[in-house]
């Protein structure tokens, strides 16, 4: 079973250039958490699954910590999710930065980490 949160939009201060760290930028984060089948499949009860809020709160917390590289942020998010959801078997995190400073028109640039 996989639980997904797709395109969480957050403002954060990640980047190697000082203006990125000062002004911040918009980021899009998507997370997939693979789990063993959970009882909620048959019980329809929240305590029998993973609450999406736990995943969202983990993403928000880690995104609030400024970092130079998206790779580092994605790795932190994935590892934090594995800590707060011990039954997670696999985590995929994608982070995309809107309008990265590359000298041309690039709508989004991003990385994907799988742990």
Q: Which characteristics define this entry?
A:
115 residues; alpha+beta; 4-stranded antiparallel sheet; 4 helices; 32% helix; elongated
Describe this structure in words.
With 115 residues, the chain is of the alpha+beta class. It contains four helices and four strands; from the N terminus they run E-H-E-H-H-H-E-E. The protein has helices at 18-23, 40-43, 52-63, 70-84, and strands at 2-12, 25-34, 90-98, 108-114. The longest helix is centred in the C-terminal third of the chain and has 15 residues, at 70-84. The model has no long low-confidence stretch (mean pLDDT 95).
In oligomeric terms, what are we looking at? single chain
Computed Rg:
15 Å
* Helical coverage, percent range: 25-40%
Q: Kindly report how far apart the N and C termini lie.
A: 16 Å
**Helix/strand class:** alpha+beta
Describe the SSE topology.
Elements: E1 2-12, H1 18-23, E2 25-34, H2 40-43, H3 52-63, H4 70-84, E3 90-98, E4 108-114
Antiparallel strand pairs: 1-2, 2-3, 3-4
Quick description:
Helices cover 32% and strands 32% of the residues. The chain has helices at 18-23, 40-43, 52-63, 70-84; strands spanning 2-12, 25-34, 90-98, 108-114. The longest helix has 15 residues, at 70-84.
């Amino acid at each position: 079973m996989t639980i997904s949160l797709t395109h969480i939009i957050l403002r954060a201060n990640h980047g190697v250039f000082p203006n990125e760290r000062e002004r911040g930028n918009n980021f899009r984060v998507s997370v997939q958490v693979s789990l063993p089948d959970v009882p909620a499949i048959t019980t329809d009860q929240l305590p029998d699954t993973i609450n999406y809020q736990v995943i969202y709160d983990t993403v928000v917390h880690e995104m609030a910590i400024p970092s130079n590289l998206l790779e580092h942020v994605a790795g932190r998010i994935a590892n934090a999710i594995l800590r707060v959801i011990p039954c997670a078997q696999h985590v995929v995190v994608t982070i995309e930065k809107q309008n990265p400073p590359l000298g041309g028109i690039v709508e989004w640039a991003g990385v994907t980490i799988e742990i």
